[in-house]
Amino acid sequence: MYKEIDLPISIKLDAKSYSKVIRVDKLTNIVSFKSMIDKSLRFYNRNTEVLYFYLKDFSLLKTMNNLRYKDLNIIFDINIKNIKLLKEYKDILKNFNLTAVLDSGVKPHEIVGVVKFLSFLGVKSVITFDLFKNIDEKEMKHIMNEVVLNPDFVKDVEPFFSFVTYIYEKKTKREIKDTLWDAFKEKPEKFFYVTSDGYVTLSKRWDKRSKYFYNLQEPKEKRHSSEFYKELDSYEQNLFFKNLECAMCESFEFCGAYLKFENGSYDCTPFQTMLKNIEENFDIFKVSKAA
Ligand code: SF4
Question: What's the DSSP call for residue 148?
Fold first, then answer.
């Protein structure tokens, strides 16, 4: 089955601030599959900053390659089956812009090995918050030394590349472009995750928790009345009344209180230590740029 996901209607088509996701679940009919991809590429490229194809079944990459679709943005989940396929399809990976999502199915101690493997294959990684929050201090140090302070790898791994970008912007007194909400691809009104049943939420994390904004079949007027929408809105409105720690935090400009949204008692120390470490070691990146 091929499933096309429509953009939520509340989003302005000329805004540079959203992603469009085409989700491909199963392939049963090559002709309709091909015609839908052609139609999507023709129509949406005009209006959309970035068009992504989310492959639930990564083996479809081979079909896309055989159909001569090149340079498409492909997202897929990292699991044992997909890692095996990556090794098998090594020769065709360069024909696509690939991003692998590392969720809680990956163990924190596996992150370094997996992102290095992906980076060698030219595949970018995005670590979800559900995985990030389980990284303990020892593992955080390992990731810090092997990935975050390694210019060869960090450019391919989010949210860590955003950490480095933030420190650069801070040091050069530039405007902070993206916050942690962007880095984890959960900024409201910018990122959308749409289930194959048409439920719209922020990301896979909230789908797992059954928290949705609306269903694409629902009337427009219901679109901002969900509990989840209100929760996000009131978190932002009441942040400084309810959460003094964030109000006083020197990382607030970048974090935007993201880390404590779901759990007010989340311990941000490892994140803050990581930012300090990047700042103290920032010359590593300058040397690599000059080289
Ligand atoms: S790092 Fe922690 S305390 Fe600081 S703004 Fe983020 S969530 Fe709040």
Answer: I
pLDDT tens per residue, range 40-55: 676 655 555 556 777 7
Q: Tokens representing 167? A: 């420190």
Q: Is the dihedral of CA 176, 178, 183, 188 positive or negative?
A: positive
pTM of the model: 0.83
Q: What pLDDT score does 207 carry?
A: 86
Say if ligand 1 is within 6 A of residue 251 CB.
Answer: yes
Alpha carbon nearest to ligand 1 atom 3, residue: 246
The residue extents of the domains of the chain are: 2-290
- Whether the CB-CB separation of 124 and 98 falls below 8 Å is answered with yes
Contacts of 29 (CB under 8 A, 6+ apart): 2
HSE-CB for 136 with a 13 A CA cutoff: 3
For ligand 1, whether the C-beta of 235 sits within 6 Å is no
Report how far residue 69's alpha carbon sits from residue 51's, in angstroms, rounded to the nearest whole number: 14
